[in-house]
Specification:
The protein is of the alpha/beta class. Helix content is 47%, strand content 10%. 34% of the residues are buried. Pfam families: Bac_DnaA, Hda_lid.
Length: 235
């Protein structure tokens, strides 16, 4: 069986927006709480650790958290900026009108963008009403980046974002199904987590698609129904 139907992502559409509300915290309670507090603290000029570095393996949720932070910042009236290796170099230049910067996949930045992030650290440290959260795939001391930037990554708080275990993901799916009034047969969470998408936004999108599919066919959510839905998506 294929691990991922080729057209499934097109059929399901885009995953839901990444927010703190739909992030499965599990063992990441402290970094999530720090990030939740950050946007409000910056907006009110309260004393706070304004430099944070998040690291974790691919799929751990660090990108989700950066987007969630920007979403929360926007709702508190902050000008927020999400930056990744795909963004133009000009976007990395410090702008006094921007209060919250997030930088993703820092180890994938080219040298010019690494230099720009180094400068961002210096500028944010000098401006009280600004904050910078950077994310990467490893702890600061082993990051394959410029030495001066590697030093900056450890300037503020450093948190490892722990990946969810399969049991955590299954528990999250069961809870999300209950909130939707959806009764899952016991084997469905295990089947979804171990055979298909492994990131939580995609798993939740699958759950929503399955809910809709079962309602349209007026059938209980069972493993045969789930397999039928995937068969139709492959057509």
């Amino acid at each position: 069986m294929s691990s991922r139907p080729k057209q499934l992502s097109l059929e399901l559409g885009n995953p839901p927006p990444s927010t703190f509300e739909n992030f499965v915290v599990a063992s990441n309670r402290e970094p999530v709480q720090r990030l939740r507090e950050l946007s409000g603290a910056v907006a009110s000029e309260h004393a706070v650790d304004r430099l944070i570095y998040l690291w974790g393996e691919v799929g751990s949720g660090r990108t989700h958290l950066l987007h969630a932070l920007c979403d929360a910042g926007f709702h508190t009236g902050l000008n927020c900026r999400y930056l990744s290796p795909h963004h133009a170099l000009a976007d990395f230049i410090f702008d006094p009108s921007c209060q919250l910067y997030t930088v993703d996949d820092v180890e994938l930045l080219d040298e010019a963008r690494q230099i720009a992030v180094f400068s961002l650290y210096n500028e944010v440290r000098a401006h009280v009403r600004t904050a910078l959260v950077v994310a990467g795939g490893a702890a600061p001391r082993v990051m394959p980046v410029r030495e001066d930037l590697r030093t900056r990554l450890g300037w503020g708080l450093v948190y490892q974002v722990a990946s969810l275990s399969d049991q955590d993901k299954m528990a999250a799916l069961i809870q999300a199904a209950r909130e939707r009034g959806l009764q899952l047969s016991p084997e469905i969470p295990h089947w979804l987590v171990t055979r298909h998408y492994r990131d939580m936004p995609s798993l939740m999108a699958l759950l929503d698609a399955l809910d809709t599919y079962s309602l349209e066919r007026k059938r209980a959510v069972t493993l045969p129904l789930l397999r039928e839905m995937f068969a139709e998506l492959r057509e």
